[in-house]
Amino acid sequence: MQFDKQAIIGMIRDPSQLEQVTLQLPDIVDREQHGTFRRVSGSTLGSC
Predict the structure, then answer these.
(1) Is 46 a domain residue?
(2) For the CA atoms of 12, 27, 24, 18, what is the dihedral angle to 10 degrees?
(3) In terms of Cα–Cα distance, which of 39, 38, 42, 13 is closest to 25?
(4) 26 touches 19 (CB < 8 A)
């Protein structure tokens, strides 16, 4: 499953996480490739 980076940025409230996402993630984020980010950030993308 893939997500647009801007959609992820729109869900982040913590400024330090926002900076991390902006710098580290590509424009299109593959949930399986970026699973480590998901665990670190506490994101629940794709769990719905």
Answers:
(1) no
(2) -20
(3) 38
(4) no
pTM score, whole prediction: 0.55
Give helix then strand counts, H and E, for the chain. Answer: 3, 2
Give me the pLDDT at residue 19, please: 87
Upper half-sphere CA count for residue 31 (Cβ side, 13 Å): 10
Judge whether residue 36 has pLDDT over 60.
Answer: no
Q: How many structural domains comprise the chain?
A: 1
Adjacent-strand bridge partners of 2 = 30
CA gap 46, 48 in Å, rounded: 6
pLDDT at 2: 84
